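debug: dumping io for the single-chain case to check the tokenizer round-trip. Nothing else runs in this session.
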Amino acid sequence: MRSAFVYSAGGRDAILALKYQGMIAAVEPLVAAVDLTAIVDEADFLAPVPMRGRRRVLGFNQAERITRVLAARLGQMVEIGVLHQTRASGTQARQADLADRRANVAGAFAVPTELVRRPRVLLVDDVTTSGATLGAYARVLLDAGAESVEALALARQCLYR
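debug: decoded output
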């Protein structure tokens, strides 16, 4: 799991504007902050973390927007729809601790095996705190036949040890 910056100051403000105010213009400068040399293994495809209810509210998935811009910079493929939620999970930000975050996403995600045709996946999200969501998605990708799963979040927020 890699991230471009710590979730604080200007980067935090830009991500919040993207997530909650639909400021899509924030994607380009945020992705420009990503050190592409940190992505050691070249992925076969990039996959954004999907979202359910918030996409209906906002009209877009910020992780998907980030993934598309990042993939264009890397010259990589984007696979939309490889990952999906099998049940509604509560918002991770509202979970009290690491154990609650892991329990919240346990068994909530799936990937059809036939969609993992290329073995190396780069999973992309906007912010990671505990890694529970990225870890749960990585597990289902590996179970579906992925050889390796790396994760990239624009920012990391360190609340748990």
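debug: round-trip ok. The mean pLDDT is 78.
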